[in-house]
Amino acid sequence: MRANEITEILNRPISQELLARDVTRLAYVAKDGTPRNVPIAFVWNGSEIVLCTATNAPKLPALRANPMVALTIDTEVHPPKILLIRGRAELEVVDGIPDEYLQINGSYEMTPEQRVEWEAEVRALYDRMVRIVVTPTWVKLIDFETTLPSAVEELIRQRAERQSA
Q: At CA 113, angle to CA 108 and CA 114, rounded to 5?
């Protein structure tokens, strides 16, 4: 997929709405060769998805061995809005708490007092974290109004061909 196609899809209002959400599902291949799909908080910085995790997270050895990932960001209403993203995970161990981690969790509803407590706990728990940065190499937006899953698009095309024959 070309960079300009990716940019055009990610700049659509529905994509921007989805990229402003808190949680994505990160799919990757585990070290034992089986698939994994885990919910994880994220932030979109305008060109990359940034996820943060503990340095001892089980996903890290798998991502080092096979950095190809898929992300799903979606809604829980009908019709669903779904943003599918594929890319390569780049891992960076950082001292302290990455700014993105604090941004990610800043959108959850917390009172100012809860926020102070949460941030103090985070800073006490993590000496270092791993930033997982995914630059999209393929994207698809499905809103069930203007875009559909490719299999459904194919069925609609086949039905139209049958009806016109």
A: 40
CA angle 17, 19, 24 (to 5 degrees): 125
- What pTM was estimated for this model as a whole? 0.89
Among 112, 100, 110, which residue's Cα sits nearest to residue 40? 100
Q: Which residues contact 154 (CB under 8 A, 6 or more apart)?
A: none
Query: N- to C-terminal Cα distance for the chain?
Result: 34
CA angle in degrees (0–180, nearest 5) for 96-136-50 = 15
Q: Which residue has the tokens 């161990």?
A: 93
Q: Are strands 128-142 and 82-95 parallel, antiparallel or unpaired?
A: antiparallel
Convert the pLDDT of each residue in 13-61 to its tens digit.
999 999 999 899 999 999 999 999 999 999 999 999 999 999 999 999 9
Tell the residue number behind the tokens 């270092």, with chain if given: 128
Tell me the pLDDT of the chain averaged across its residues: 94
Is the pLDDT assigned to residue 105 strictly greater than 70?
no
Pairing of strands 23-29, 49-54: unpaired
> What phi-psi label fits residue 144: left (phi over 0), alpha (psi between -120 and 50 degrees) or beta?
left
